[in-house]
Amino acid sequence: MTEISKKLLKEANITPKLRLGQKTSKGVISTGEHRVKIIKDKLDKGTDPMTGKERDVVKYLVEEAGQHKFYEVPKLGKDGQLHYLVQRLAEVAEGAEIILKMEKRGIKNVITVTEIGRTDTIEYDEDEKEEPKEEEISLDGNPF
Prior knowledge:
Elements: H1 3-11, E1 21-24, E2 27-30, E3 34-47, E4 54-64, E5 67-74, H2 84-90, E6 97-105, E7 108-115, E8 121-122
Antiparallel strand pairs: 1-2, 3-4, 3-6, 4-5, 6-7, 7-8
């Protein structure tokens, strides 16, 4: 991102989205590993991209390379239970560093989460979530 763009985002109080994948004509391609520090989370409202209905989401404010970004996860998974990624991230303390990475597994994209200092990872089905529509972005552009 250019310095002018960074300055404009800061002046407009907009927190950019953490992007783990890039949409292309051939599907979503991973942007690689993202080492982030979890700053805080909050429950919010979002829109289900499949149905267009309002749903509860959990927004995570993270810091990547000194810049604040946010990442959004549905509160409930496809099975109606608390989303597994929400459960796993609940085990990670605020201020802890994790590595998030999108990986292609067959026809699905999954998000792996590795806490720095731990060796286990979890998977998150990225196909469940899509980019927010313009009307979903708050007026001040800051989800926190």
